Structures are given as C-alpha cells and as structure tokens.
Amino acid sequence: MEVRRTVPVKIDVDSDDAALLQETVDEFLFAANYVVDHAWQGEKKTTSKAQLQRETYDAARAETRLHANLVQNARNKAADAVQSTLARWKQGQYAGRPHFSTPTVVYDKRCATFHDDHASLSTIDGRIEARYVLPDEDRDTPHSRYLFNDDSEVTGADLHYRDDD
What we know:
This protein is α+β, with helices and mostly antiparallel strands and 165 residues long. It is built from 4 helices and 6 strands; from the N terminus they run E-H-H-H-E-E-E-E-H-E. It has one domain.
C-alpha cells in the first residue's frame, strides 16, 4: 500500500522570483475558477476531467500565461472540488459552488523538478529555482524522516502563500 506524507517546506526565492510566483498563483486561481464556472453550467454539473479538458483547456491557455501542465493541474483541482461538492449533496450536506481564493498552485513532476536542496518550478515566464529552508538533518523532524532518506520520493507539492511568504 502506498503511503503519502505531507511535509511543509518553506522556500527561499529572491523578490523577482517571488513576484513571478505570485503572478503564477493568480493565473492558476483564475484557471481553476474558470473551469469551475464551466463545470457548474446547466442542471447537470460536469465532473469528468477528460470532458473538462476538451471543453476548457484551449480557452484557459488563451486566457492565461500558464504552462500547459499547470492548466491541467488547475483543471484537476476544479474537477475534484466539483466532485466533492456533489458527493456532499448526495449525503444530504450543504455545499456551495466551489471558488478558489486561497493563494495556491499545484505542482507535480510535469511542472516541477524536485532536488535534495531546491526545486525548479514552472511559472508564467519559464522556470525558477527555489531553495528549501530546512532544519538540520540530524534533528528528529518530518523532514529528517521523509525528505532526508532514500525511502521517500517527492512527487508533488502545493505552493501556498502565507503571510506574504
């Protein structure tokens, strides 16, 4: 059985790269909300990622400067949110139309390369290098248990802005 772990890692980038990441976040949120808006049209909500890909990909690419894989990740995030809402409805729970406003970008191996001490991240204007801010390897932390050993593999990351960091 595959086990997934989430380990928070702060990154260090210069002010130009931080601004580029912020613009990427803004466009990612636009694309995700665009897909939700499309999926929400009509009586029957669209949850098929393949159908949403066919129906929204070209327009989302034309409206944003996102790398192709970031558009696909925005679509996946939107489709998952719509599916989650419909699942809650089936259970008789209230759930409103999804809307993304939390500053986040979803990265996977198609749009990020993860190294031991940094990541290369796709942005709206090429790639940037983001250095990890990590604790000492010898301390007993989630970083030492999962990031500093060969048994774990980094397969993706969600970039979050918190307190302008």
